[in-house]
Amino acid sequence: MFTKLYAEIKKILKENRIGICLFVLLLILFCIPLPYYIDTPGGAIDISKKIKLEDSYKKKGSLNFAYVSELKATPLIYLYAKFQEDWKIVKKEEVKYDNETIAEMEFRDKKLLEESYDNAVLVAYHQLGKEVHIEKTTLYITYLDEKARTDLEIGDALLKMDGEKITDKTSLLKKIRSKKAGEEITFKVKNKNTEYERHAIIIEEEGISLVGAMVTSNKDLKMNPPIEITSEKTESGPSGGLMLSLAIYNALTKEDITGGNKIVGTGTIEEDGTVGSIGGVAFKLKGAVKEKATLFLVPAGENYEEAIKLKKDKNYSIKIKAISTFEEALSYLKENRT
């Protein structure tokens, strides 16, 4: 019986060997992952569609996130990217720190996204004098430097340091800065619903006392009027913070700071309204141009210089404005409405 079955299978394979070889080849070309990512010009996302707010004001113009499209490389996509001027092949190691896994990188980026949402709400509500309270702040370990001398783990929620309750990032950093290199500190943390005691030895970089960890804060906010911000599973990172803060402000006011225009931008936002630099500026500007935006807001400094250079090289007509703070962006938009 088995001999007959084997012979039948062998016959089928022999008669269909060309088709089977083609199938295997196509499977390799389309499905086998390579250790690369492909960055391509993205587009723009209208933020108003992500904001849920009762009695929000409808506007003619729009404020948009700029984003980079990122593809996981397969042999076929990799080969295609080689011949595309606007596509960039990035090694897998370049999208994350050397000593972190992809899962840890994704956790870090998600927490940074949540932090940027919180900061955007705080900045917009404070600017308008609206009621907003921080009911609770949770600090998470989202990255550990290879020089860190600690048993802290990615995902740890910090509860106490040397027996004192941790309430915010500023006070935590102040306490760490007061320590000397070589001193040991004790943390009480919570990870996956279990509490642990962790330890860290203070290290020193350029005269500054450090633990060697990135800490990201997530806040439980209570605001009036209440607002809800939705996000897709594929979204991550803090680069949309500036535009989200402007969109929240615009949703809460009768005036339309867009002047009826399609505005695209990028940049992180801190709780004090400071705008920070981001990656992928060239891809984001190309996406804004593709979406026919009239204005591109970009963090001042290297990001702005890169955008201006690309504009000149490609002869783009889009306006580009360097932004350092939320108030600067707001003032510019109000003064240049058409």
Query: What's the number of structural domains?
Result: 3
CATH topology value of the largest domain: Ribosomal Protein S5, domain 2
Radius of gyration equals 25 Å
Number of helical segments with 4 or more residues? 9
Helix fraction? 25-40%
What does this structure look like?
- The chain has three domains: 2-31; 38-72 and 82-90 and 99-130 and 225-335, Ribosomal Protein S5, domain 2 (2-Layer Sandwich), CATH 3.30.230; 134-218, Pdz3 Domain (Roll).
- The longest helix is centred in the middle third of the chain and has 27 residues, at 102-128.
- It contains nine helices and 19 strands.
- 35% of the residues lie in helices and 31% in strands.
- The strands form five sheets. Strands 5, 6, 7, 8, 9, 10 and 13 form a seven-stranded antiparallel sheet that branches. A six-stranded mixed sheet has the order 4-1-3-15-18-19, sandwiched between helices. The chain has a two-stranded antiparallel ribbon with strand order 2-14.
- A hairpin with a 5-residue loop joins strand 16 (268-269) and strand 17 (275-276).
- It is α+β, with helices and mostly antiparallel strands and 338 residues long.
- The model has no long low-confidence stretch (mean pLDDT 85).
List the helices and strands and how they pair.
Blueprint: H1 2-15, H2 17-31, E1 36-46, E2 51-52, E3 62-72, H3 75-81, E4 88-91, H4 102-128, E5 131-144, E6 149-150, E7 157-161, E8 164-165, H5 169-177, E9 184-191, E10 194-201, E11 203-205, E12 208-210, E13 213-224, E14 228-229, H6 241-252, E15 262-265, E16 268-269, E17 275-276, H7 281-290, E18 295-299, H8 302-314, E19 319-323, H9 326-335
Parallel strand pairs: 3-15, 15-18, 18-19
Antiparallel strand pairs: 1-3, 1-4, 2-14, 5-7, 5-13, 6-10, 7-8, 7-9, 9-10, 11-12, 16-17
Helix pairs in contact: 4-6
